[in-house]
Amino acid sequence: MIKKLRKRFVRLSMVMIAIVLIVFYLFTMAVFFLGVTENVQKTLRNYSSESYFSQEVDLGVDNEENKSYMVDASSVCVVCVNEANTILVLDIGRGHIPQNVLEHVVGLVKDSDFDFGLLMKYNLFYYKTDVGYGYRIAFADSAHYYTYLRDMLYADGVIFLLALLVLYVIVRQLAKIFIKPVQRSWEQQQNFIADASHELKTPLTVILANCDILQSHPAESVSEQMKWIDSTNEEATHMKDMVNKMLFLAKNENTKPLSFAEAVNISELATRIVLQFEPVAYEAGVRLESEIEDGIKVTGDPTAINQIIHILVDNAVKYAGIGGVATLRLKRHKKTVLLSTQNTGEPIPPEDLPHIFERFYRSDKARTTGMGYGLGLAICKSLAEQQRAKIFVESNGKSGTVFTVRFPRRKRKEERKKRV
Predict the structure, then answer these.
(1) pTM for the model
(2) Mean pLDDT: which of 4-18, 169-183, 382-396 is highest?
């Protein structure tokens, strides 16, 4: 899928680039063709000008006015035709045009409505000037002109192909860079589907098994089969909880940070959540501690901030281990507010740390415990980003696992406005 997308991107990009280059190439060649043709016309006009023959001028000597890269000076032949159609060859030394051919082409040019043109049959450019008593006509062989055009065409063609080759290499590299986010999203989506299927498979299997047991004992009363009913209800509740979390993540995945928020006393929220978790920690054999500064306020959504603290404390208690310690800390730090949880227990492997906030991601050890679905920390990160906060994790055998959320501190101006 990704390879096909990358190839398609390269193909479409190269087609568009090729079209642009071809149009540019044709445009430049057209401009060049018009330019060199105009150069030939100007050169022959100079040769046919009467001022060139006001004195005895040696056309065999090139001067700056006559100099042209399009016209070979040795191929120029200038003739003068009077009203009696008498042809006077002013310069036969370099034209090398046979007399019979010269008479024929002079007749063609004289009858032509155009002062400048190309006699394709004879490969001759011409330019005629009306001098009052007749015409003065300059002829030049077109071979040098076409040779120059052909050389330029080949040179530009080689440059065009080299440019396509270089751009192809660049586009391939850019395709790899541009496709990486798509590839990452695609892999995450595939992992999400696989993990969701894995997580839903177990409760569905239990529910179906319980239904089979209930159907196999139709004569038993409800009270006698209550344990199967309770098991089914428990698994269905777990599935509902997981589906709700998945829907929450899908809904909030592309949600922008809150444009409007209120002042939240995060110290009160943290203190209240610690009290709520004390019985849970006691039952889990974990000592729950707190270090909370009073009166700290942040700007945000109180429900979302409450859920962030709840998820982090729940995670700390859950993975502290029997006899372990879970600590919630809240303090001011410069222009921010730091909320952190620290717990003892097995540290998170270094290779798992970069993925810890991904949906359904859990290290193998944690996955075998059956605790949670691996969605809590993903939800926590999503909520933190909505509150314009940043979340970090550190884990090692010495200090345990520490999750830190850095909230922007509430500004004094906002507090004063609130009081007014």
Answers:
(1) 0.53
(2) 382-396
